[in-house]
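agent: user wants the full assembly modeled, not chains individually. Plan: 1) parse entity lines 2) check alphabet per entity 3) run joint structure prediction 4) return tokens. Steps 1-2 passed, two entities, 710 residues total. Proceeding.
--- entities ---
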Amino acid sequence: MKFRESLSGGKKSNQTRENISGSVSSLEVHDLTVSYHRRPVLWDIDFEMPEGKLVAIVGPNGAGKSTLIKAIMGLVPPASGYVKIFGQSLEDARPRVGYVPQRNSVDWDFPTNVLDVVLMGCYGRIGLFRRPRAADRDVATDALRQVGIADLAKRQISQLSGGQQQRVFIARALAQDVDLYLMDEPFVGVDAATEGAIIELLREMRRRGKTVVVVHHDLGTVRDYFDWVLLLNLRLVAFGPLEEVFTDTLLQQTYGGRLNILTEVGELMKKQDRGRELR
Amino acid sequence: MNDSLFDFLVLRDLSTRTVVIGSMLLGIGSAAIGCFALLRKRALVGDAVAHSVLPGIAIAFLIVGSKDPLALMVGAVVTGWFSMIAMDYIVRNSRIREDAAIGLALSVFFGLGILLLTHIQHTGAANQSGLDKFLFGQAASLLARDVAVFGSVSLILLLVLIVTFKELKVVSFDPDFTRAIGFPARFLELLLTTLLVVAVVAGIQAVGVVLMAAMLITPAAAARYWTERLGVMILLASLFGILSGYVGAFISYLEPHMPTGPWIVVVASFIFFVSLLSAPKRGVIAQLLRRRKNVRVTLEENILKTMHRMGEADREMQDPRSISEIQNYRSIPAAVLQRGLLRLASEGYVTSQPNKKWSLTTQGVVEGARITRLHRLWEVYLTEYVRIAPDHVHDDAESIEHVLTPELEVELQRLLQRPAIDPHQQTIPYR
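--- prediction returned ---
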């Protein structure tokens, strides 16, 4: 902590400073590098996130947005670096962090109903090899009510629309009742009504002091929805409050020049790994 | 009733009883665990594992020197399990994809197994006869001790499934989420792998290496047609497995030269085809019926809409119309139109009038207006929101008008702010 404190400054806002000197930050990522088949897809990601913010992770396709939150959750192994959540290691902090995968990462033809999926949010609390109780069902039902689909509790998940599927995933996260949420593209392929309902919920969660990190693809709504932004393109371009970071210059840096040096070096490392000639 | 048939049904004869009970037990575990293989899209992995147990059986025989079921089983589990680990390793650490990895493991292990079996046959060991039965299985040669061993294996397997049901369910549905909540997803996947290997090994005695995949996948695939609940699916698949074992053993009892294993698979396949055709929601027949009903409803709605348009034209909504008058507005074959009108009459939307004419009832006017409204609202939506030229929107609206739900209609009206006219300057009829 001491070391980081001495490094912070410069462009960091007052809010961040207060946070570092005061309470523990919700999420710290230290020099995180992630590789797929030896080819780096995230380089030296390093940031510290204050509590109680709605944060957008923004960047072009292939920038590593999903990989970043998967790496934070320990779903892809880092090549180097580490993550701290509320000052604890990931394994210790798991009960305080929730993950919402991309909607299309699961098979919605799985034989189960809406309530059962939301109930999975309680599994971490219930523990291994124990059955859910009535109280857990109440939590799940309440989560469904919050996302506005309490009437669909008994519906087969194969019968849901895209927006309803996303609401089910959000409800499952709500049932977890954690302090930090990482959501992968929750607004993709949902109807306008669902998008509105979800953003309302996220704001309500922020009011209750939760930190919500969202991989977001729609630059048009970033300004309306979020108060902090993380610009990502293989490396961390910028991270901070919306008004400081969501600027034309920084966006240009994030989206401009698809083939930057990092991608080229990544390609070279892949070639090297496969034993091909470098040039 | 035929005496021998009766003997079979009450399992009077000890060896019959052994074969029948054995065949039934062997089907349970594989069918239950097959549900998870199917849902995790690992159906082919089961096939590869089944083929990969063969070298294990041969090696165990070479070491122990007898066909002790427990020893053979251990050997089978070891190579079966090793092949799954190998497949997993190949997919993780090379650029070879899963289908190729499965093919590799299957052929390499199976080839090795055949090689070893041939070698054993050439050693001329007196007690080796019957090892090749593992290729196609021979339930008829099951002994009481085999049934005891495999029966208890199936039982343990089911117990494990019951205890870890919640965990296996979540890891099969969403492995990333499972890891995210701190559950040992890798361990659970390994557990599923191990259970799969054990189930395969237990079933191989009856149906053999080559047909084992069918016992994993066919009952599970059949069960999926009948239910939307995982627990029920597993139960049903197990039942189908038991039933296949029983009927398969029965058939080969009636015709002693018929092999039991293949018959078990044939029966399971039959159950699958019956499910495929006649399951209430997912079955092919149910789907065909639904499609036919949709065609019927579309026709009826088109007739009502056409008669509503005629009413708009001469401002007499309920005037009687003849078949040919309707055909002037919309080309529907006379016979089809006649049938549609008769059905509409029975539903109270039209009434028949003198001179073979038909008129809309009040209810028919309302329904005709609804379809017209949906058609025109959709045209407005396409031109305004999707920016499609007005002369391109009609065909799309023709199909969309039949599927729009009342909720979507409300949404459309709100979004478009209740437009008065459509892109073709026709008034949109509101209630």
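agent: reporting back. Strands of chain B lie at 321-322, 350-353, 357-360. The first helix of chain B runs from residue 3 to 9.
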